[in-house]
Every structure is written in structure tokens, then in C-alpha cells.
Design brief:
The protein is mostly helical. The protein contains 10 helices and 3 strands, in the order αααααααααβββα.
């Protein structure tokens, strides 16, 4: 395998992680518009690792808070706006490999693409060196974020609101699955299904990213549940 480019070597230094499998770093920074081998699976993995790592930090730092309050804070820490800000801090602008159409439309600066690449990097470190290395990376990247009870004042997003509603009724968490992706490579639409098996309900939503699609599906599910229990 070819040596990493100078910009990726510099990114390794900022991550404080030297990849034993450099191909994982390159894949984490490859958008689906560039290649059939892209970062979406790593993003999926990184999203899970990030959630677990942040959950551990919050559990230890905010022991007096309820499950719902912790969930709300976690949601604010892993939402697109936060991930985009951290991606900018890592210097990911210009490092994500994009197809020509995506580049022309400004995809190298698009928050959803940078947030997804940020999560994919966490997934790549997890595959390269295990959870401890990925967890250490998350803690380094979030070390400037103050974890305090005042964060619970942040507004709820639909996914968090849905989760709290179901937890309040002692139901299992909702399930999300990708149904379809369509549109041009630089203007893709993600269709996501949200399922609540205990209520036998299913709703779909669309968005310009997987995360946005999940939020739209959660919003539709909230409306459906309120009709169901009205």
C-alpha cells in the first residue's frame, strides 16, 4: 500500500494515533461520491463507539442526573453541529475525497459530510486498535467540552424526544434502518425507517444525510404515537 500523503500524516499527528492499517484512514475520508469503497460503514461504527464513549463520560461526571437528562445531553454532544465543529478543529476541510459533482457544489465544507467523516475516523481507529484507543481519541477530542448539569437546558431533537417518550412508558428504544438512497452523488437523499415494534408502528423520513433522515423519521414517529395514544 502506498505511503500516506503529507496531509494525512499531519492528520495522524493531530489524532495522536498512528494507523497500523493506513487504508482505514483513507477510507474514513472517502465519500460515496468518490468511490464505491467509501466511509459509510465506518461512520455507522464510529457513531456507536462515540455514543458509548460519551455515555461513559456522562455517567461518571453527572451521577445525579436522570436517564432522560443524560440522554438529552448526549444527544447535544453527538449532533451534527457539534461534530461539524470538532471536524473543523481537526482540520478535515479539504481532506475528504469527493466526486467532482460534490466538490463543485461545495461538499468539502458541507457540515453533514464533515460530521460523517469525523464519525468514520472514530470507527477507523476502533477497527485499527480497539475500543480503548477509540475511547481515548474521543476523550481527547472532547476535552475542551465542559460536562455539566446546565447542559440539560439544550433543546431536544426529535430522536431524543422520541427516546424519552418511549423510556417514560417503559418501552424499548426505537429502531432505525436505511431503506433507500437516491439522487445524484452530490445531492443524495437518505430514506430512513423508524420502527417501534411494541406499538406496531413504522414511519419514514428523508434527509440529506443519514442523521437528518433519522431525525425526520423520529419526528414522523412522534406525531404517529401522539395520534395513537390520543
Amino acid at each position: 500500500m502506498a505511503e500516506l500523503s503529507a496531509p494525512l500524516l499531519a492528520l495522524q499527528e493531530r489524532l495522536q494515533h498512528r494507523f497500523a492499517q493506513p487504508g482505514l484512514l483513507e477510507m474514513a475520508l472517502t465519500h460515496r461520491s468518490f468511490s464505491a469503497t467509501h466511509n459509510e460503514r465506518l461512520e455507522f461504527l464510529g457513531d456507536t463507539v462515540l455514543g458509548l464513549s460519551i455515555s461513559q463520560v456522562l455517567y461518571r461526571a453527572l451521577g445525579g442526573m436522570t436517564e432522560g437528562e443524560l440522554s438529552r445531553i448526549r444527544a447535544s454532544l453527538v449532533r451534527q453541529e457539534t461534530l461539524h465543529r470538532l471536524a473543523l478543529g481537526l482540520g478535515l476541510v479539504g481532506l475528504v475525497r469527493l466526486g467532482e459533482g460534490e466538490l463543485r457544489s461545495g461538499g468539502d465544507k458541507r457540515p453533514s459530510i464533515l460530521a460523517d467523516a469525523f464519525e468514520a475516523l472514530i470507527g477507523a481507529v476502533f477497527l485499527d486498535a480497539g475500543f480503548e484507543a477509540a475511547d481515548a481519541l474521543v476523550r481527547r477530542l472532547y476535552d475542551q467540552v465542559e460536562f455539566s448539569p446546565t447542559m440539560k437546558a439544550n433543546a431536544k431533537d426529535p430522536k431524543t424526544e422520541l427516546q424519552e417518550l418511549l423510556q417514560g412508558r417503559r418501552m424499548k428504544l426505537p429502531l432505525y434502518r436505511g431503506i433507500d438512497t437516491h439522487g445524484a452523488a452530490h445531492q443524495q437523499i437518505f430514506e430512513i425507517e423508524c420502527l417501534v415494534p411494541e406499538l406496531n408502528l413504522s414511519q419514514r423520513g428523508q434527509g440529506a444525510s443519514r442523521r437528518a433522515g433519522e431525525q425526520a423519521a423520529a419526528q414522523a414517529m412522534l406525531a404517529a404515537i401522539r395520534r395513537h395514544i390520543a
